[in-house]
Specification:
single chain, 395 residues, alpha/beta, seven-stranded mixed sheet
């Protein structure tokens, strides 16, 4: 799958106008797509190419009819869409109908062209960790999810077990069919695991220089769509290797993944826990690693008049000393870790094949969900036993 296939020009021309630029952009970025993305894109194109003409036209006719009434004015041969183009689409009164129809079409394509083989049946591991110092007694942890899983008692605080646990997962012998970027990912607020070798470790703390550069450029955007488009294009093309940690800069796919996470909104540039959640969700969707560890952190209390509603670091905008927000951090991390779990359920290779562990650094138990959760031992697990359990599951 490393060789780039030819762009299916004739097929793209037959698709609705809103599909063309996105598909052309994906093929243009082929070398930066993860293996799972390549397999999915190729499977989709192969299925559509073999679809009888009558079925093909029937699949896309309702969407094409909606687009014809939206007066988009798009060039389906364009390499990508700008802010103006997407703004026209989003402001159209027919946008809800268009969105629903796109979801229907992709649901049909994904169902028919779902990748098969060993990648889809691999046992997988997802771990989410709440930060140390949050008031665990103030709130029940994951009450709705707990009804679906089982609590595993630990011989000590989960946080004290994380270093040997993460090392054991990262250094395991993975299935030979997985490439390096499909094995283990770590997303964290701090920089506890940046020394782990051989696995992508995305640390909010370690990408400070990159975040500040992006914030600086975005704050200079003028209030017109042309300026937004120009700045966005410049940031997508800018050389960021010199302000990105070496381990990430050396891996072009992971480096560009990081750029995309920071530029796609969702608070990733400003809020560390939002960065962890969004990066984890995107890694699950795009790279589909066999194991992923997401470690949330302690957020700071919001300062008044800090311009956080824009793109600003409140520590620069307001000289008042920062202070931690344990209660707010607990609420954030509980909600966002739940989102990470739900994100995995939307990717075909995870449901039914994943052992999920949710825990807090200061807690002496973890919530196990999914595969074999009900078979876990009832006696407190040591750090070695917890790692052995996870490794045994991953095979």
């Amino acid at each position: 799958m490393s060789d780039q296939p030819p762009v299916p020009v004739d097929l793209i021309r037959r698709l609705p106008a809103t599909f063309g630029p996105a598909l052309r952009d994906q093929f243009a970025q082929w070398n930066l797509l993860f293996s799972a993305e390549r397999r999915q894109l190729q499977a989709q194109m192969d299925w559509l190419a073999k679809l009888p003409r009558e079925e093909f036209d029937g699949l896309f006719a309702p969407l094409a009819a909606i687009e014809s009434r939206m007066a988009l004015g798009w060039d389906s041969n364009a390499a990508a869409l700008g802010v103006r183009d997407t703004g026209i689409l989003a402001r159209s009164p027919l946008y809800p109908q268009w969105r629903a129809e796109v979801e229907r079409v992709f649901s049909r394509i994904d169902e028919a062209a779902a990748p098969s083989g060993p990648f889809q049946k691999l046992p997988r591991l997802l771990v989410c960790v709440l930060p140390a110092g949050v008031p665990l007694e103030e709130q029940t942890l994951w009450p709705e999810l707990a009804a679906e899983g089982a609590w595993l008692p630990l011989a000590g605080p989960f946080g004290a077990m994380l270093a040997p646990f993460a090392s054991a997962i990262a250094t395991r012998r993975p299935p030979p069919e997985l490439d390096a970027d499909e094995r283990t990912w770590v997303i964290e607020c701090g920089s506890r695991f940046t020394a782990l070798a051989g696995v992508p470790v995305l640390s909010w703390a370690d990408i400070e220089a990159l975040r500040r550069e992006f914030l600086h450029r975005l704050n200079a955007v003028q209030r017109d769509l042309r300026s937004v488009d120009r700045t966005g294009d410049e940031l997508r093309r800018a050389d960021i290797a010199h302000i990105t940690p070496h381990s990430l800069a050396a891996n072009a796919r992971v480096r560009e993944f990081l750029r995309g996470v920071l530029l796609s909104g969702n608070g990733s540039l400003v809020f560390p826990n939002s960065f962890v959640e969004w990066a984890a969700a995107e890694a699950l969707r795009r790279a589909q690693p066999q194991a992923l560890l997401a470690c949330f952190g302690m957020r700071q209390k919001l300062k008044p008049f800090s311009s956080l509603v824009l793109f600003e670091d409140q520590n620069r905008a307001n000289p008042v000393a920062s202070s931690d927000d344990p209660s707010g951090s607990l609420v954030d991390a509980l909600l966002l870790s739940g989102y990470v779990y739900l994100a995995a359920q939307r990717v075909a290779c995870y449901p039914g094949h994943t052992l999920t562990l949710l825990g807090a650094a200061d807690s002496d138990r973890v919530l196990a969900l999914g595969a074999r959760a009900a078979e876990l031992p009832g006696s407190p697990a040591s750090a070695e036993a917890l790692a052995s359990l996870a490794l045994g599951w991953l095979g």
